[in-house]
Amino acid sequence: MQTIINKNIKQAATYLKVGEVVAIPTETVYGLAANAFNANAVTKIFEAKNRPFFDPLIVHTHAIEEVYKLVEEIPPQLLALAQKYWPGPLTLLLPKKDIIPDIVTAGLPLVGIRIPLQNDTLQLLQLLEFPLAAPSANPFGYVSPTSAKHVFDQLQGKIPYILDGGECNVGLESTIVGMQNNVVTIFRIGGLSIEAIEEIVGKVNINIHQGDNPAAPGMLSAHYATHKPIIVGNIFKNSLKYNASKIGIISFKNQFLDIDTKYCYTLSVSGNLTEAAQRLFAAMRNLDNSEIDVILAEEFPNEGLGKAINDRLKRASYKRS
Ligand code: TXA
Ligand code: MG
User: Is the peptide bond prior to 116 cis by the omega test (within 30 degrees of 0)?
Assistant: First the structure.
């Protein structure tokens, strides 16, 4: 199959209407989308990504009125979050209506829903008479794509069309929020900070899955991983164990000029966590594709988007450090 990369929203819509999968830009990461009402089309997403069927998909739409067609209710606190942060990097877990096929939610009674903040994709969603189920557009377990080229590099030949909307502005997957025992609970840290959520609903619970049990799917310990090992910790100290030419570095604002490597990705010289988050996944991919042997990363400040950056680095380094 030939894979076309283009900016033509109508063409993307045409593929989706006939049950094909299309990679779409969002502000978080690129998604691999199909008609969420069409179980056959959704199956193609799992095949292209090599994704296990126990891992549920997020459904994307363009307006809160549309969400009510998909779910039984939106609890008041989650509605307050939706009103404040949609469109944006927030996914809500809500009780699904039967119109959503079981394959989308891996048989679970809740469906993850999100309105993305990306103009091309919002226009695309408006052209369609169905919402789009879309996981991140990477092979299962790998780093999420933040450009059309990232998608092409890995999925060419497996999907017909990539809608090119440029680089993702946020660069980290959405924050996943739901209710648990009547308390607002965060199930995945992501592109909307915990602080921003607590501003609206007060103190939240955090229930981030760690371990190998896929009961909280997509939150496996080893995820978002490069092929090359990533070691998180004191970069200078860790660098002493390797030949400098074999080291790639991901740092926050320190440039580590004393380590003789040409592969140092300093994600934000000005110390801005939003900028760092936006650049993280591209740095991981570029290092993975370079001739180094090991990626040394440091722990980021444990606040705002720094928490999500640390979460991704930790999962990417799992079993190795
Ligand atoms: O930013 C994002 O969320 C991106 C863009 C494309 O929207 N999507 C994304 O999807 O990151 P994905 O498939 O890579 O991650 C979806 C994760 C699942 O692995 C699971 O952890 C959680 O969302 N999820 C989805 N539906 C769920 C459900 N019904 N119950 C529990 N967790 C769910
Ligand atoms: Mg993913």
Answer: no
